[in-house]
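Supplementary Methods, section 5.1.

A reviewer requested that the exact input to the structure prediction be made available. We therefore reproduce it here, unchanged from the version used in the analyses.
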Amino acid sequence: MTEHFDVLIVGAGLSGIGAAYHLQTLCPGKTYAILEGRGAIGGTWDLFRYPGIRSDSDMYTLGYSFRPWREAKAIADGPSILSYVRDTAADHGIDHHIRFGHHVDSAAWSSADALWTVTATRDGVPVELTCNFLFMCSGYYDYAAGHTPDFAGSADFAGQIVHPQHWPADLDYAGKRVVVIGSGATAVTLVPAMARTAAHVTMLQRSPSYVVARPAVDGIADRLRRNLPAKLAYALVRWKNVLLGMMFFNQSRKNPAKVKGLILDGVRAQLGPDYDVAKHFTPAYNPWDQRLCLVPDADLFDAIKGGSASVVTDHIDHFTRDGIVLKSGAELPADVIVTATGLNLSLLGKMAVSVDGAPVDFAKSFNYKGMMYSDVPNLASAFGYTNASWTLKADLTSEYVCRLLKHMDRTGTRIATPRRDAGASGETPFLDFSSGYVTRSMDKFPKQGTAVPWKVHQNYVRDLLALRYGKVADGTMEFNAPAKLREAA
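The structure derived from this sequence is encoded token-by-token as follows.
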């Protein structure tokens, strides 16, 4: 028998657990289930197990709007974040709604029935479920494998080559020479963590990223928590951090040279006047053209100053049995090589989608309000900010989905479809970001327009006003009931 739910949520990570909370709080009469392909709650924070894994956003904004972050560190480690997500699910009974081991393969929409038929695989057997609304909280990258370039001679290397996305639990790097290839958030996290026990860790980068040191503990938050109720203190710190982040991002856009100078001055203050900051920490692009790398308590800089880690800026020529030969001719000896070379992006968990029998090519669609897709009914996806915490947008998306569902209940409609005018012009990539993991995949993602509601704003305040208080029936969202229900009426 095919099970039916009002809403199916796909993914039991940070977004999916948050979506379930909002749904059962704001729409308590709706039935729902969460389909999770893996065997545990947590998504990213359960999958990634590499040394030092942590957030690159503060937990006052990465945490849920409805659940205060109570631990001391604002820049939290992965296990603490995982506990936070799992505790949220358990405390609100959300864990009882999760179907583990259900890998979603396809979703087929029927306008005649106003239903999605979702096909998942469980233990190698296809399982069908139906729902009125499909909420995708499956993240934005491929869980199966990270991005690893084809390095010449990699088969000759006698040591271990590891990608952070699939970290071996038994990897012993104590006393060994480690080369971490990459310069992004994962690399700057791994280097100081591994340097504590490795003989030496080298961060090998083709080009630098902007790296900013920040205290792991938020002193203002601690003072507020001591003197105010937890929820009030959390809300105040959340808004403080949101506004400071927006101000810094806006200044980066308006005065990139000034912001660049401030960031590099901070690096020089950490590493001293004799360190070659121009070569190793000065990117060719402006701040926030790619995401900034955050290092709590300057741990990366401390490892470099202490001699347990170093940075090499060069290109790889080939691997050898004992390490890596660079284009410059220099050689880096290594016992372990970590390819912190990025992610493979994946839209909607690579789920095949069809509407009334016609396959949907999302690369030809337009994104509506950062969460829905032109001409695709009753489907939303959680996709966070590139310049702020993921959860800020995921929370707003969940609230909006609940508003949309309640509007359809009030009006007796069953179908909500974003419609873009046939004559509308202007399009830009879904993400305005120059990072390699983004540019490699943007041809598979939907477009965005040049004006609302098709423009994706990386701005929490604008989205808050639009998604929490703006009109649901905005003239772009088309509402209908199935033909057989209209005839019956």
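Residues 54 and 77 are 4 Å apart (CA to CA). These observations are discussed further in the main text.
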